[in-house]
Each structure stands twice: as structure tokens, then as C-alpha cells.
What we know:
Layout: H1 2-12, E1 18-22, H2 24-27, E2 37-41, H3 50-65, E3 70-72, H4 77-88, E4 93-95, H5 100-107, H6 120-130, E5 164-169, H7 181-192, E6 197-201, H8 206-218, E7 223-225, H9 233-240, E8 245-249, H10 252-258, E9 264-267, E10 287-288, H11 311-314, H12 318-331
Parallel strand pairs: 1-2, 3-4, 5-6, 5-8, 6-7, 8-9, 9-10
Helix pairs in contact: 3-4, 7-12
Amino acid sequence: MTVPVVYSACEAYPTVRFVIATQPVASSLFVNPPQNLTVVGVDVKQRYKGTHGIWRLMGDLRREYAIDAFIDLHDVIRTHIMGVYCRMHGIPMSRIDKGRSEKRELTRETGKNLHPLISTRQRYFDAFKRMGFDFGETFTSVYPTGADTTLFADITKPKSGGERWIAIAPFAKHEGKIYPPGLMSLVVDTLSQRAGTRLFLFGGGGYERDILEEWACEHPHNVTSLAGKRYGFAKELALLSHCDVMLSMDSANMHLASLVELPVVSVWGATHPYCGFTGWHQNPANEVQTDLPCRPCSVFGNKPCQRGDYACLRGIDYHAIVQRLDNVINQR
Length: 332
């Protein structure tokens, strides 16, 4: 979720060098970075492990880049240690306000204070503003002029005229955010029967890979599974940029699609868009959810279902999801 904000900052302040310190796997998300952005992959399991490692990291960053300010966009123990270093060395800093108390009120079992919270995107902007960087939302895509089809040539051939490409990412980190696979398979079956339609399935390894490969085998002519293939963010984002719509849970895939201006139909269960984690410039009309008094019960979907039946997800008719996808496609 940081990419659009950071790229916007770089565009607004071209004479300022911005340095993003993030874990190696996330560093590859910064596709086609602005010239004044440096992305540093930080291995917190080796050289920068533990408190002494984070202290070493700040020393390395200070020597290598002569940093003048520190903006904490994460607000976790590691970044708090980085903040202590900055205070001890006279380096100005600001920190994101995650609104944790507001989110607790939004997700408590009784007496929920149900209203839209400040989006995480806006919280990032506010952290920059407190450091003196005031700018607007200028980011559009990591492929602003379009992604060359050769970037995903080892995944599929270019789209044929009149074809509709639909990306589907049916999994998330926690059960409270996953539309039941049995119901999702009905969505896949329905869409795969349409002429001129191709489906691309996104997921991880293990059981996700097994389920998605099974679906692809059932529809070998127009369903392709990318699960566990490790093509890399650059290739997968290039492919997404040529799709017409993505179906996603409240997961990272929603945000990946947002990096290439791809409309997302998102399915919400234990979590809720009001928590502030919707995708960059995504249309709220494309959010599919049920209206239950227990929702949201969790910010991240990691708590056991209070009812024990995940009615928030099981209660969503798969036809409603298909209809929402059709609405998006027909508007493009």
C-alpha cells in the first residue's frame, strides 16, 4: 500500500532522494521506481537481526545515504528502535498513526462504533505531511505507459481481440477473509463456460496451489493457475495490467491490482472496508459483503468466528459476485 504514496512523493519532490528500507521480498514490488527513489532490501534474519542489527542498519543507512529525516510507515518494534536511533542522533522523524484504538472500537463484540476510519493511504500521506512533505495523489500505475506483453510471455500469449481476461485471487492469510473454496469454484465454473473469457488464478503454494491447479485442470482451455510458480511481481503485475478485472479477497492481491489501475471486485468477511485497507482508487461499489451485526469482528481477519459459521462469507451468493464482475467488465 505504500508504493502509490511513495511514488507520488517522489514526483512532487524530484530533488529529494527518498530511501525505502523494507524486507527483500517487498523490495521487488517497487517496479519502475522514480529516479529519486532508492529501495533497500533489509535482511532482518542475518546482518540486521535483533536490536543490535536494527541499530547497525541505521548506522549503515546514515553512512550510505546521509539521511536527513526518518518517516516510520510501519509503527512496529523494529521501526521504534530506528526511531530511538534517530532521536539520539538528532534526526527528525514522524510516525504513522495507525488508529489502533479506533479500530478496536470498530471491531469490538458489542457497541461497535461503525463508521469509516481514516484510510491507511491517508495515514501514510499524513506521516509525510508531518515531515513537511505535502503532496497529492499523482500515482497511476507502475506501468504508466502500459506493460509490454513480452514481460509475461512465459505465462501466456498476448490477449486476442475481444477476449476478456479475469484475474482471480481466492485466498488470504486468514480464514476470516476467504470466500469458501466450494462456492468460489462455482464462480470459476460459471466464468470459464463463457466464450472469449480467460481466467488467471493467483495464489501461493501448498493447499492453495493444489486447489487452483485442480480448477485449472478442470478447465484446461481457458483457466491458468499461477499459484506457486514464482514468476515475480514485475511479470505478474504486467499480466494484471492487461486484465479487465480482478476478483480478490481483502488481501495483498487487491493492492497489487491497484498498482496497475486494474478494477477489483473485493469480497469482505470478518474484516470491513471501514477499517481503511481498501485498494488505491478502488470503487466502493465493487465491494461485496453481507450486513451482519457482528461485522467487522477483526481488523486483519485473524480472530475465530464468534458465531462459528463464518456466515459473513458463506452468506454471499456466488451469483452476486459474478454479477459484480460483469458490471465492471461492461463498463470498460
